[in-house]
Write a structure and sequence with these properties.
2 copies of one chain form a homodimer.
Chain A: H1 8-18, H2 34-62, E1 65-67, E2 70-72, H3 77-86, H4 105-118, H5 120-139, H6 142-153, E3 157-162, E4 178-181, E5 186-197, E6 206-213, E7 226-231, E8 233-235, E9 241-244, E10 247-252, E11 263-276, H7 282-288, H8 290-318, H9 342-373, H10 378-409, H11 412-415, H12 421-429, H13 438-449, H14 452-472, H15 477-505, H16 509-513, H17 516-544, H18 550-567, H19 570-579, H20 583-586
Parallel strand pairs in A: 3-6
Antiparallel strand pairs in A: 1-2, 4-5, 5-11, 6-7, 7-11, 8-9, 10-11
Cofactor (chains A, B): FAD
Organism (chains A, B): Poseidonocella pacifica
Pfam families (chains A, B): Acyl-CoA_dh_1 (PF00441), Acyl-CoA_dh_C (PF12806), Acyl-CoA_dh_M (PF02770), Acyl-CoA_dh_N (PF02771)
């Protein structure tokens, strides 16, 4: 069985030495002193390693079962869910007005990485509830908030998001689910929704479904979509549970991974629902929380990479095959551990340098969300809005790739169930698809975010990178050569791509859109390059200050050097593809493929 | 359920317009007239599409079951196996002296792609038998050949390869299985072997195991390994079956994919075996057939990509979401088919341009094996020996990647079992691992093949590419620009990498070995670039000659242009990584990862 070791030390490094969170003027960040965050992360780590990780293969093998309309979660899930909920973990960053602890999102992101790495399918039950909580919190009426939020904060009640229908997912303008006014404040909801994660299960007393549907007078397309609360059990004025609503789980999806999470077909047969926010403004409500939800999926992607890497590393240190070509390393053993071989290292360094870079990038993103939500910082809001599709698309593509690399480290053992690596691969795969496929992320990035407010956000990002390079150059020739020069080159490629899109965007949109996916990756590499420069700088500062754990900081710098030398050159290929334009992409008639 | 459409037309194009097989002086190639190969491929295609493809999901869901020592294959497998065997498909390229049809390997490779694409797990039963047939054919005594081969050619008896043991796979010098002489011509074989594909099953009357073991006087390491025939049932002089041998299947591996194929733990408890070839020369016997076996795995990799692409394409033509940004394409429908969107096309073109390039590359490789085995062409032998790790490593990495891309085309549907794409991903994954992991392939390429005979083979490849460019330049400016220029640039990158290795190889082997994986991919792109140039040239010739099916040829050229413009630029990144050297790869102490 695979193991899980909470990366508390690395998280502390990112929070306090790179982001220096407690020095930020964001409301609530003054609480985030190193001792406090260490205590929180240690406790979360114990649950992740001791409770959730052992249940991960159980959930995979047993899966969920639909019996007489009831979905049974795998053995041990309910007890673990109770433990997580009773420990207050589901309330971490929720509003104290509804029972939350009001802690910054950046801290709950760190906890989220641990929970997601140790058991992604399990953690989704809480994650979906949190998403629904966010939507109601942002757009619900006071009465709705009072009625639903406290129980959702504690996860006594679950929450779901119902968007997709059999004939439409990405193009939500096509949805057919209907909402007909009942004459009071309620609506009759009728339709079928598919791929509803945690749509039905046995771990909560009630499930609060958020459902996109169309009112009778709705305009065509996405401008005619409204959002409804549709509880599994009606809730009485006093908060007690009333009648069962007319909705049911019509089936469970058989899928490649995340077997421990119930992916439901949900049938609404004239179910009673309540409008959230204004009529026809449901998409807006959905979009409000998209930055956070998509960052959460990017996190899932690299978190699977992180746990996969940990297990690949353990294997590489243990497995004896062949001899170091430069001289025997373990003469007392029949062979050397495979970590001596350059190609095994290349593989491990790819994993390590991605995972640590992704962690820093995600925490930085979470801190931008805090700055926006808590601090009302509009520039932060625009920046995270720009970066969100990169975090989601790039980190899940690379996170999945990392699980595949880790699986490869184990050779044949990686393909067997026993070692658990193949589950990480199968679970990570969904992150590239849900919450908007990565193709959609790239379209959002190039088609919407780049041009928003006259390109203000991307210009701000360029400025930020340029200033960083300028402010940090000239102090240390080695740092300049190993980190700033590659970052400058990669950033130039990103700017060149941006210029190409600007020049082509209006003339021939296909030229821009054909390069959107490469742009998302180019952008991702620049972001990770920036994070690695910042991390190396922070590590150097600690070394200069005489930090005792020199191995940790030296390793950090060496890992960053690897990323800059081996991964950043990819930006040139992405740029070459982008500037190759759309002609070869669009050349074929659809019939001739 | 996914569909399978045999790519007969494309195969015919490669065989006759690109490779022009029937004009080759290789013995037996005169038979390969277009009408003949078309007839063979049509019949094979019917079995692949009509019999094997429908069993592919059945095999995946049911898997194999071990009951009282007997392995039950999935429903329908035995009947299909009988049909394949009775149709003579297992005997296609086997020696007529033992009941084979004696057809060239290039033709059985084309048939193999169909069988493997439609049902990889199923086709492995025959594939393993064929591998064992090859080993006995090359190294067995006349008596052994007469006793075992006819029944293996017809697949009445199966065959297996027993290399791996629990503590060693790659490093076979560590094996512990013992062979003790019985005093007659037989040996007592004792040991445990794992991951034995088709090690035990119910589709054959007997199974002929080829087992690597050590004689009592064996030298240490790989130089002390001998190869033995260990039949499941002893074979009497008259060819009838005798007693059950002392060997058994001790368990089935639970694994990520190829569930329809039994992956067995095999226990040899003093089983009776017979030496194949000379004592201590077992590794040589294994290596003889490695080119063919590894080409077969490369084929499996791209074949899964091919069937996945076909199904992704069908989905992209059918699924309606969003509108073409340059103008509505299907006004009569609620949305346009997703194939109108540039990023969906980018994804499909990546798949298509890889699959067709890989097919040409593999068929070319198979024709080199024919030239070597049938024609005694030593240069062909050296060239295919050099290209084998590229075919195996590059085509399986990219083949797997292609299944992932295809799965992505389907969005959420790609993650569900129902659509079948996720099975292609899970099945394709093993091809990167078995028959030598792709890391090992890259080590074989850079550590052995490059330097062999003073680098004669790689120089020959460079000459071949240069001559091709020289011979074809100057006739058509567009062809020069779109195909020859990128090929020249990529080929230069490959040469620069080769020079770097030469300069570093002796000085610091870690510098060379740290770049081995990138070199394998760089090489693969150059090979596919060469194939695309050759295909485009052939397509142009047919167009110039007034071929009626202009769409096919124009599509071929456009697809090639895509590959050259969008994939070949990767060679620059691979070169940058290679010349970055081994310092960042090897920097960390194993304890500090």
């Amino acid at each position: 069985m695979p193991s899980y070791t909470p990366p508390t030390k690395d998280m502390q490094f990112v929070l306090h030495e790179v982001l220096k969170v407690s020095e930020h003027p964001v409301p609530g960040y003054d609480e985030l002193e190193p001792d406090f965050t260490a205590a929180v992360l240690d406790e979360a780590g114990k649950i992740a390693a001791g409770v959730l990780a052992p249940l991960n293969p159980v959930g995979d093998v047993q899966g969920c079962k639909l019996e007489n309309g009831i979905v049974r979660t795998p053995e041990g899930f309910k007890a673990a869910f109770d433990q997580v909920r009773n420990g207050g973990w589901t309330a971490l960053d929720c509003d104290p007005e509804y029972g939350g602890q009001g802690l910054p999102y950046v801290l709950s992101t760190a906890v989220g990485e641990m929970f997601s790495a140790s058991n992604m399918a399990f953690n989704m039950y809480q994650g979906l509830t949190h998403g629904a909580y966010n939507a109601i919190h942002a757009h619900g009426s006071d009465a709705q908030k009072t009625m639903y939020l406290p129980k959702m904060v504690s996860c006594e009640w679950g929450g779901t998001m119902n968007l997709t229908e059999p004939h439409c997912g990405t193009d939500l303008g096509l949805i057919r689910t209907k909402a007909v006014p009942n004459g009071d404040d309620s609506y009759k909801i009728t339709g079928q929704k598919i791929w509803i994660s945690a749509g039905e299960h046995d771990m909560c007393d009630n499930i609060i479904h958020l459902v996109l549907a169309k009112l009778p007078d709705a305009p065509e397309g996405v401008k005619g979509i409204s959002l409804f609360i549709v509880p599994k059990f009606m809730v009485n004025e006093d908060g007690s549970l009333g009648e069962r609503n007319s909705l049911s789980c019509g089936g469970l999806e058989e899928k490649m991974g995340i077997h421990g999470n119930a992916t439901c077909v949900m049938n609404y047969d004239g179910a009673t629902g309540f409008l959230v926010g204004e009529p026809h403004k449901g998409m807006r409500a959905m979009f409000t929380m998209m930055n956070e939800a998509r960052l959460g999926v990017g996190l899932q992607g690299y978190a699977q990479g992180a746990v996969a890497y940990e297990n690949a590393l353990a294997f590489a240190r243990d497995r004896l095959q062949g001899r170091d070509v430069t001289g025997v390393k373990a003469p007392e053993k029949p062979a050397d551990p495979i970590i001596v071989h350059p190609d095994v290292r290349r593989n491990l360094m790819d994993q390590k340098s991605f995972v640590e870079g992704a962690r820093a990038f995600t925490f930085w993103g979470a801190s931008l969300i805090d700055a926006s939500h808590r601090g009302g910082d509009e520039e932060a809001e625009q920046l995270i809005s720009l970066l969100t599709p990169v975090i989601k698309g790039f980190l899940t593509d690379k996170g999945f790739e990392t699980t595949v690399l880790a699986q490869q480290t184990l050779g044949g053992s990686g393909f067997t169930r026993e070692w658990g690596l193949e589950q990480f691969v199968r679970d990570a795969r969904i992150t590239m698809i849900y919450e908007g496929t990565n193709g959609i992320q790239s379209l959002d990035l190039v088609g919407r975010k780049l041009a928003q407010n006259g390109g203000k956000a991307i210009m701000a990002f360029f400025d930020l990178t340029k200033s960083y390079i300028k402010d940090n150059a000239g102090e240390d020739a080695e740092f300049d050569k190993d980190f700033l020069d590659p970052l400058k080159a990669a950033s130039k490629d990103l700017q060149a791509a941006g210029m190409y899109f600007m020049a082509q965007g209006m003339k021939n949109p296909n030229n821009a859109l054909s390069g959107s996916y490469d742009f998302m990756h180019l952008f991702g590499h620049v972001c990770l390059g920036l994070m690695w420069a910042r991390m190396a700088k922070a590590a150097k500062a600690s070394l200069d200050a005489g930090a005792s754990d020199r191995d940790f900081y030296e390793t950090k710098i060496a890992t960053g050097r690897y990323y800059m030398a081996r991964q950043l050159p990819l930006t040139a290929t992405h740029l070459a593809r982008i500037t190759a334009g759309g002609d070869t992409v669009m050349a074929l008639d659809a019939a001739n493929f």
